[in-house]
Amino acid sequence: MRPTYARTALVLFALLACALLLPGCASTGKGEALQRAQYAWSAAIRWGDFEGAWNLVDPDYREQHPLTDVELERYAQVQVSHYRELGVQPTTDGTAVRDIDIGVINRHTMAERGMRYRESWRWDEAANTWWNTGGLPDFWRGE
Description:
alpha+beta; Nuclear Transport Factor 2, Chain: A; 4-stranded antiparallel beta sheet; 4 strands; Lipoprotein; signal
């Protein structure tokens, strides 16, 4: 009778552990989705796929600020040499913010410069995805 009691206790312990861990898995779903979205965004920017990155921008932002052919051609004139996360700032309104250091090379002059950029992300419950709410990085600030 002892092995049955031990087996039952082990099964009950395993079920209890699963019940306690299950809510944590649900809450990390959005966190994992954010990490995947930010990874896809940083990869697209790093490798010069600005059209791909544009698809990760909030549809409302895209509608209000359409990307023109001239702007897209301007992005083709630069190459990103590095893309480093500097820090993440937690927010209380369900958005996510992270600061980025970007190295930009002008393809015509081969001159490199660094800049800082702040990404902001919002969770879209209906689409079950995170959207970048600030558009593509402005590599020409003030120019």
